[in-house]
Amino acid sequence: MKRSLNNSTTAKPLLTILAPPSTRPWPRSGYTAAGGIEISERPCRPLYAAVFPSRRAAAMSLCVMITAALPGCVFPQDDSNEEYEEYDAWESDDDANGTINDPGPWSPDNHYSSKPAIDSCKAGAVSDFARNAALDAVNEVRSLSGLPPVQYIRAGDSETQAAALVMAANGALDHFPPESWDCWSQAALDGASTSNLHMGWSTAESDISHPAQAVVAFLIDSGVETLGHRRWILDPFLPGISFGSVNGKTSNDPTFPYVEAAALQVIHDQSADISNTDISYVAYPHNDYPTEYFDKNWYLSFSALPDRTSAWANNNVDFNSASIKVTGPSGQLGVTSVSHSNEGFGVPNHLQWKVTGLQNGAKYTVEISNVKVGGTSNNYSYWFRIN
After folding, report:
1. Partners of 272 in the β-ladder
2. Is 27 helix (H, G, I), strand (E, B) or coil?
3. d(Cα 378, Cα 280) in Å, to the nearest integer?
4. Triad 51, 53, 55: Cα angle to 5°
5. How many Å apart are CA 139 and CA 154, to the nearest integer?
6. CA gyration radius for the chain?
7. What is the per-residue pLDDT across 183-214, written as a single tens digit (0 to 9) for each?
8. N or C: which end of the chain has fewer CB within 10 A?
9. What's the pTM value of the predicted model, to 2 decimals?
10. Is 364 within 8 Å of 328 (Cβ atoms)?
11. 237-251 tens-digit pLDDT
12. What is the maximum alpha-carbon separation in the chain?
């Protein structure tokens, strides 16, 4: 049996963590995206972290599902293999940076290639079925916003799997898990500090969630005011993702004794080269949009992309004087809860708002005016329809 916080209107943050900003680079080797994607160096982004509950999932839901908004930057790390010795039981059925040939449909029975064991701190390994399902989900939601697909970065698998293990073992989410936590490792810390995190509980060990559930929860980002998960997944400069997942029995909750944790790595020290694309903004929702990927009571969002050569060059966008107009078949709708920031979650400029009275099947036009880019005023217009 699974239950979720999807319909809760009173869910409170489980934990909130704010880390000081950092501009230190994150030197790291071996992070070449699979599939031949062209990548380039980019500076490290400011560091923020927050852990909030998420109240919505995709097709499946859990008793308690929480997601952790990941930081915009991480500190340098040791790239030695010593940190992985604790997890020598972790097995990969693939080469470190190979491509994923579509293995076929995902199911709970083929989720793992090596099953984890929380009580013995064995991280296990997800299968290509699970990796491909996570990658497909990320690329689907990106395509809906007109963004290019990303590749699967296998070099991150040991970190995401270790991060999922330490979260599951302790029944909590933290981008910087302390060494006192059960099953802690340097790999877990590195994975947690560079990944969106997701967790849920159920009454049966067989209740393994489809990887798309976490991806859609990150996209909608219910309860997360920064929309940090969404912004990382919809980052035009994202080169690729890695996915880790661990489930098993814990003693933390006798009513729902089985925990499931997932990590989706989206922070890298390299960026995808999008200089030859024509992307000028990132909007959510955009054009025809699936109803299961959108909450009409939550935030719409927009980021301008005046510079396609460098992520941080897009920090020079000012929404202070911007206005938002949303028009539907019956005229203009009310726009509320407008806010903006230039924090480094994905594209470092961000505008968000809520709209009253949205209806499925209706076509809406969004006009965003007087967006200042380097002192010059710019206007943007696009449409969406929730189907």
Report:
1. 39
2. coil
3. 11
4. 150
5. 16
6. 20
7. 999 999 999 999 999 999 998 888 899 999 99
8. N
9. 0.78
10. yes
11. 999 999 999 999 986
12. 63
